[in-house]
Amino acid sequence: MAPKHLIIDGYNVLGAMGLPPHRVVEQGEHHREEFIVRVGLYGHKLRNLITLVFDAWQQSGMSRQVIHREGVTVIYTAQGEKADGVIQDFIRIHGKGAAVVSSDLEVIAVAKAFGAFSIRSQEFVKRLASAGLQGSGVSRSQEGPSQKDVDEGVVRSKEKKGNPRKLPKKLRQRNRIMKKF
What we know:
The chain has 181 residues and is α/β, with parallel strands linked by helices. The chain has helices at 10-16, 21-26, 30-46, 83-94, 105-113, 121-130, 147-152, 169-178, and strands at residues 5-9, 49-54, 65-69, 72-76, 98-101, 117-119.
């Protein structure tokens, strides 16, 4: 079953794009707003519900704000509330119907426990870039191995039977879901 709801840890992905959260806060809302527009365009192609969660827990007097823009639900957390906790609550509610974009190990562990699909922030940034939605003001400084390199690096023992060119079932399932994103 393909996930119907994409939940994104906003500052985590902006950090993977080369913009640490303190730079986004210092330079105002420009980068954050630009990112919301790009995710909205991506959502139009994807045709899924998208929720983008930003941390605002260090801002005094803030209550949780939910804004609908560009086809994306944007949530700014309340004072004392972290985005990871909000994302984990969404995972618990949606379960297998959710896909989560985050590089936080705790969020990924909760996603795995509830059957949600997880995508690392760096991988999502590459998806945005391949969709032509990377943007000019953001650098891609942290390049990792491509998915093709990871797939070709699978080492198999001599004792196994079956097609040696066929990827393991888990990787085939992941690749099938990733094609939808």
